[in-house]
Amino acid sequence: MNHWPILPLLLPALAAPLIALAVRHDIVLQRVFSVASTVLLLLLSLILAGKVADGSVLTYELGNWPAPFGIVLVLDRLAALMLVLTSVLGLFVLLYAINGWDQRGKHFHSLFLFQLLGINGAFLTGDLFNLFVFFEVLLIASYGLMVHGGGALRVRAGVQYVIMNLVGSSLFLVAVGLIYSVTGTLNMADLAVGVAEVRPADQALLHTGAILLLLVFGLKAALFPVQFWLPGTYANAPAPIAALFAVMTKVGAYSIIRVYTLIFGDAAGDAGSLAGAWLAPAALATLVLGMLGVLAARSLGQMVSFAVVGSMGVLLVAVGAFTPQSMSAALYYLLHSTLAAGALFLIVDMITQRRAEHADALIAAPTFAQAGLIAGGFFLAAIAITGMPPLSGFLGKLLILDSLREGPAAVWIWGLILSTSLIAIIGFARAGSVVFWKSLAEPGQLPVGDTPKGSLPFVAVGLLLAMLVLLTVFAGPISGYLDNTAEQLFFRRDYIDAVLGSGRAS
Amino acid sequence: MSLALIVMLPFLGALLPGLMMRSGRNACAITTGSVTFLAFSLLLTHAPAVLRGEVIQVSWQWLPALGLNVSFFLDGLGLLFAGLILGIGLLIITYSRFYLSKADSMGAFYTYLLLFQGAMVGIVLSDNILLLLVFWELTSLSSFLLIGFWRHLPEGRQGARMALAVTGGGGLFLIAGMLLLGHAAGSYELSVILERRELIQASPLYLPALLLILGGCFAKSAQFPFHFWLPHAMAAPTPVSAYLHSATMVKAGIFLMARLWPVLAGTEAWTWLVASAGLVTMILGAWIALFKDDLKGLLAYSTVSHLGLVTLLLGLGSPMAAVAAVFHIINHATFKAALFLIAGIVDHEVGTRDVKRLGGLLMLMPITATLGMVAAASMAGMPFLNGFLSKEMMLEQAWHHGWLAPGGWLTPLLATLGAVFSVAYSFRFIVHVFFGPQRDDYPAKPHDPPAGLWLPPALLVALVVLIGLFPETFAGDLVRTASAAAMGAVAPEFHLSIWHGVTPALGMSVVAVAVGLLLLWRYPGVRGLWARGPHPEAKVMFDGVIAALVRFSRALVLNLHNGSLQRYLAILVGAAVALGFAAYLGADGAARAPGGRETLAAGPVVVVAWLLLMVSTLMTVIMHRDRFVALILIGVVGVIVSIGFVYLSAPDLALTQIAVEVGTVILILLALYFLPKVTPVESGLGRCVRDGALAVLGGVGVGVLSWAVMTRDFSSISTYYLEHAKPLGGGANVVNVILVDFRGFDTFGEIIVLGIAALAIFALLEGALHGRLAPRLRNWTPDYAHAADRHPMMMVVATRVMLPLALMVGVYIFLRGHNMPGGGFIAGLVVAIALIMQYMASGFGWAEKRMPVDYHAMIGGGVLVAAATGIGAMVLDYPFLTSAFDYFSLPIVGKFELTSAMPFDIGVFLTVVGAVMLALAQLSKMGQRLNQHAVNTQPMDYNPSADRQADATREN
Q1: CB-based contact (8 Å) between A64 and chain B?
Q2: Which of B337, B613, B685, B847 is the most buried (most CB within 10 A)?
Q3: Of B28, B11, B10, nearest in space to B19 by CA
Q4: Which residues pair with B896 in a beta bridge?
Q5: Residues 43-62 of B with CB under 8 A from A
Q6: Read out DSSP for B539-587?
Q7: How far is it, in rounded angstroms, from Cα B753 to Cα A436?
């Protein structure tokens, strides 16, 4: 019996309660347990990615019930890729968080691992309702992490976050209910087959379900007009959590990619094209709003949050084209923007911790300890997120532009992506200039005080930036993998055959 | 390979200055210089081959999917530019060592300088236009750092940002342009593109590509209308200005135009765009330069003007014009870099570079003055200097080219006009700085600088003179090879020499010098003329645009994201309603109709329940400000929904629903104790109407959908569950078998959700108990007074009697679950509620003492038990959560069934109880914290037995 696909879920599902159960009184033990688990998770993800690199699709029928009746986990290239990304980001963020963030409240490590469980589950599951369950797992864990450490602003933002997302969950149920009512199944591969066979008389229900589901995923992915929760949430969340959340929006993006290629792909008829029609314009609006937000922001945290919104816009514009080439470009940009946003949130936290009462406000304040080193990190991460060369953001942007040449909207898409890049560049240049340069003109230096002294945070940020460099240098082989991934997404038969046995795919 | 090394050396070397700074400024400068020297030497080793006409190439794949390769090639044009970049770079590094003060961070300076150098060499050696883009934007970034090097100065910061915005923005144009060009050519390799002129010019993408590429080039090379950033970049340290803003970076745009000349030039569009931009820039820059009092400002506008001259030449499109352009690039780089360095010396030694405060320096600083005068004379285009030669060629081209007006008189006229201003400002530089009376109010005592400062410009001036005197010897081959490369063909026959005979160009030159000197002679009058004209200040406009953009962004984005949850929710619900209706109504007419399934008759009981549901829902809306009442009403809704489940034959759902209702209402009631009891009025009428409309639309929408769903016949996978629950799952209760077996993984996830929720509640309230909120909590007085009898006897007695019964029911529900309505989840809730009742009736202190259970452990244990059940299957080589069951018989008990789902359900049970109780425990801890009353140790405030004893004593 091949148990590989369940392991990335089982590991955090065991480690997290174990930490809550046995070692919650000792912070060192908690750290040992959670770092060890995350390292293991990374190794597992890498092994899994290796196993499916040849294009095979691994499935795992939980409870030994045959699909589509039981729940099935499916590991293909895309899922493996997302697992690796999550565990890389998770590990580095965790390393950063053990500078003291993890002690500002209870159960940090337990919640952190539960969060990873939720995210991994969303990537692995091959069942629409089970996806809902993992959405709940990651939502509730992220809420716990979001309000970690408390504080009025944070709790307020947390309430908004959780309420918005609970409404989203309700919509998810409505949508799944509608889809189930006309297809009679929840298994995604089975749905992929069944959706094409829905009777004309049931199309209205199917369409409504498909479009509401897009809204739900869009909410997670911070797509306009349901992106409103993100800036407040990310800017007020504990920094390492905001950094981890960089991958949470990608859960939304992943779900859109998965569901609208597999279930509502070309074979699904009108229900399929519906999503593309809505997605691209909404993504462009997201892009514009996010990048303008970078310029509008009054604090670093807010600025990075809006940059995340903007980057989701870029990503979803590419996804919305639904061609293998644009999907591959989107996936590259997905990897890049997740790591870059994660690094930026951590760097902003370094600044915040050193600027005492000035925190991350975009005002000149006396300079602070290690400003030079942090400025260097900020410069690199800003280059990355604004898509300047030589880092991966530039390559991602080129790939996306290259893949979106055709079509009547191409001029708009190119124009908006490029002009918003300029706005983001101006925004980040202004911010860096105020915080690092103008502040030098302010008299005095802030006392080192209780700023964290360990070098681990720097190592964590450095490793994240190093990931961006690797992503850049090895862009060739990585984009090769992504091309294969995108191809696998659009050639649905592999997935369907792996889940349902051969012969069911149309 | 060594070609790539030339590019990589400055990048690799960029790490060194920061380190070597630790061993002193000299070591730092020498290290930096060595890096550049090494790269320069490597370049020179290739020079003979290139001058022979060979092209050296090297290539690796980087991102093949995009056509992005790391490929370099070196031809004449590349050699010329790389030579300028590295050669002048070496001089600049030397000069900077003596120019920078001790307070400046030299390590950082050299690091930025090397980064810039590497990027610049990368541009001129790239064979791949996408790779070229990478280096292109890198020069923008590194020049941002260099211009803002004196970061404490506002001009430095603002100049840096402006330069980044304009050149970086231009880079974005270029990105688009290059992608189009590559697409049109079918390759991103320059060496291929340059072969495909016809293909490209025939492509519909030619014009957009041309426009975009020129946008990038003009922005970088400060051509009108992007010229405004360059003077503000002069806030950089002077060596940077000399290097970036005269010799190298601003020439990147020129370079690219020259590089792409073979494929882009020669069309109407090209000539019109490029030549006219060049002409306008040449005249405008020279005119403004005439009135700049800051030496660097004067030189900056002069640079703008000379770049315009080169652009004009490239724009004319004739081979000889291209030769002249290449030649002028060399000449301008030498005299202008020298002039900047001299301006830096003046600034350094005199303490000002304001022309009005200078003058009479000739005798005070003889070396500097001599160098300055020669270089400026070259800039003016005086004979025997290199500037003269290329200017003559320009004028000649302008004369011959019949462009812009019939008969071709306008171009020569305008070119001469540019030359006039050029002469005027050059001589102004000479006369107003070095001649005139010596002053006694110099900020510092002027004297010639140390050799380290004057040697680099002296070398450049030597070149100015040598090329001026012996052009063919010193520049002939280079110009020939480079212009051949730029044209992509064999260069036309030409011979560089001082004397061409009496030509129209000579006449134009003479006129230019005469009129230029006249202007200078009448300078005050001319300046008065200028002062009356309009002076659009580009910086003010630029700042205004940025400020307006920021204001607009703030007005739009921050007002949209104003933190109002009501608004966010309204938009979310609105979007759902709009999308839902659009999708539903957008489908075919037949698909919108309700299904044909027969509906059930509604009996009186159903109607009553239905009315009750509606009334209580409406009441909730109406009375929602009174939170207790609203909570009770929500409870009523929940109960009716549960009854509905019973009516629709879903007893499991009904049981779960009712247990969840009870549990949550009790917990919310406890929480409400700490919260305001009344919701304040926050919404005006408008918002109420909006929200009401959304609610009605949403309700109607969901209603229509439900109706459509429920009136349709449908088949689903549920038949499989019905068939297989008993034989394969071992349970007659299909719902339970689905929960613990078919879809046990969902349940596993959901108990984790419950556990996480409890942990999150714990962590959140722990913060309130111990964090900053703790003092507030201590000083808080409850809204309502405590009841005098906190633990009423009736309730204490009733709950105590009920406890064993309730526990028994819990166990019963748990055990029957697999075959009849029940199961671990419901049992857990029932037990938790029974326990909560104890706490409520007798107080937390009393109850906790009798039940010292660690709820954390219970939650963790529950999840682990459930997981362990699943892992058990894995040990036996079945997938996670595979169940097994069998029937056993024991004496007395008889035949019974044991399933592996049972321990799984125990896990569920434990987690549910633990989660509910942990939440309760945290809430009561908050209660205790603010409670002035001591924690009770007795189950009742009023102890009847004690009273009876008292009575007995009294009776005795």
Answers
A1: yes
A2: B337
A3: B28
A4: B888
A5: 61-62
A6: HHHHHHHHHHHHHHHIIIIIHHT---HHHHHHHHHHHHHHHHHHHHHHS
A7: 43
Residue length of chain A: 506
What is the share, in percent, of chain A residues with pLDDT greater than 70?
A: 97
CA distance B366 to B372: 10
- Token pair 């940025």: residue: B546
Closest to B664 in 3D by CA, of B644, B638, B645, B643:
B638
Dig out the tokens for A27 from the structure: 């912070």
Which of B553, B576, B715 has its CB closest to that of A171?
Answer: B576
A52, A77 contact by CB (below 8 A): yes
Residues in chain A with CB shorter than 8 Å from the CB of B772 are 150-151
Instruction: Round to whole Å and give the CA distance between B27 and B17.
Output: 8
Pairing of strands A58-61, A72-75: antiparallel
Nearest to B872 by CA among B843, B846, B903: B903
Distance CA B400, CA B381 (A): 20
Radius of gyration of chain B (CA): 43
Domain total in chain A: 1
Residue whose pair of structure tokens reads 């590559």 in the numeric block: B182
Q: CA-based diameter of chain A, in Å?
A: 75
User: How crowded is the C-beta side of A363, counted as CA atoms within 13 Å?
Assistant: 7
Query: Hey, what amino acid is at B760?
Result: A
Residues with Cβ within 8 Å of A123's Cβ and at least 6 positions away in sequence, in order, are A78, A79, A82, A83, A86, A251, A254
Q: Model confidence over A383-441: pLDDT tens digits?
A: 999 999 889 999 999 999 999 988 788 899 999 999 999 999 999 999 999 888 888 77
Q: What is the dihedral of CA B663, B667, B672, B678, to 10 degrees?
A: -20
Q: What is the pLDDT of residues B98-113, one digit of tens each?
A: 998 888 888 899 999 9
Option in A71, A202, A232 nearest B743 (CB): A71
Domain residues for the domain of A345 are 4-500
d(CA B358, CA B350): 8
Please, is B282 exposed, middle or buried when counting C-beta atoms within 10 Å of its C-beta (0-12, 13-18, 19+)?
A: buried
- Which one of B144, B553, B742 would you mutate to disrupt binding with A, by most A Cβ within 10 Å of its Cβ? B553
Q: Is residue A276 part of a domain?
A: yes
CA distance A417 to chain B (A): 10
Contact B157 A438 (CB under 8 A): yes
Nearest Cα to Cα of residue B304 among B257, B215, B234:
B234
Task: Give the pLDDT confidence of B698-714 residue by residue, as tens digits.
Answer: 999 999 999 988 888 87
pTM, full prediction: 0.93
Q: Where are the domains of chain B?
A: 268-521, 600-673, 732-956
Has residue A505 been placed in a domain?
no
**B80 to B85, B92, B340, B486: CA distances (angstroms):** 9, 18, 21, 11
Residue B698: both structure tokens together: 């949403």
The C-alpha atoms of residue A410 and residue B792 are separated, in whole angstroms, by 74
Indicate the SS3 state at residue B783.
coil
Residue B126 dihedral angles phi and psi, to the nearest 5°? -65, 135
Q: Does the beta carbon of B579 lie under 8 angstroms from any beta carbon of chain A? A: yes
Whose CA is closest to B20, among B7, B33, B8, B11?
A: B33
Q: Is residue A506 part of a domain?
A: no
DSSP code string of A162-224: HHHHHHHHHHHHHHHHHHHHHH---BHHHHHHHGGG--GGGHHHHHHHHHHHHHHHHHHTT-T
From CA B296, how far away is CA B352, in angstroms rounded? Answer: 11
The token pair at A97 is 């968080």
Of A38, A44, A42, A47, whose CA–CA distance to A12 is shortest? A38
